[in-house]
Amino acid sequence: MSHVGALGAAALLVLALSACTGGPPAPAPPSVAASAAAVSLETGTDVGNGRPAVSHDGLMVRRRTVIAVHPAPGADLGAARARLEQAATAGGVVLSDISPDVLEPAILEHMSPEVIVALPPGSTSSDAEKLAGLAFGAEGSYPGVEHVHVALVLVHDLRFTVAAADPAALAKSIAEEGILSDALGNYATVLDNGALTVSYTGPLLSDALVESVRNGMARGAGVDPANVALAPRSDTGEGVDLSLEPGPALEPAPSPEDNGGQSHGAGQDDPAGHHTGSDDSGH
After folding, report:
1. Which of 49, 162, 205, 252 has the most CB atoms lying inside 10 A of its own CB?
2. Higher pLDDT, 257 or 206
3. What are the residues whose beta carbons fall under 8 Å from the beta carbon of 274, sequence distance 6 or more?
């Protein structure tokens, strides 16, 4: 039994190795016809322009590939999301909501995406670009999208577990108090064998924020915070050593030599119509 928690209210900017597929794509094939769909985004609550102090890494930190849609003015965001979902379903790919705050500051300076999805673990940038192409077609004719950013980002992939005599009552109490929604944004709960498990995948959390989650769960359960176990959401796959990772790329200040007429900040359009520059250096 599980449910997804409410949205939090703040944001954390973390590392993204980004790329961008250029131009407004063409109409999708009939199998990817658009239909209205609401977009539910999760938000972390650490605020800042860089990576927080994080010691919980290794298998607790993962690389995920995301697609962020930069819509055209007045575009139907539900239709854009539906096209991605339908293309993913046709290809047997399960998309999940992710906070835009997993994107690097340079991209967020360029746009604040209201449509952003994460591909399954292990997916590559090529997989994401192919999916975007299936959803929106070739460049140049789909009016709802200016372009699409494909990014490889770092996320926390955590599991918090605490023993509870009545896990369902504890989960309800935590949800009503907003302990975890304030700290995590979206999360999932599992009630099993006298324990409450909270799973989270999203922007990197500082050590202080992780401890606030443990304290909140412990308070609700009437136990010491040390009794709230913290573990990777999955024990398989490849984790990340954050001490070896470069810091987030920041948007450079414009210089007089920059082309002030470009609509994408420091980036420029290449002859093929792809967006390039410091915020999209991987494409």
Report:
1. 205
2. 206
3. 20, 21, 22, 23, 280, 283
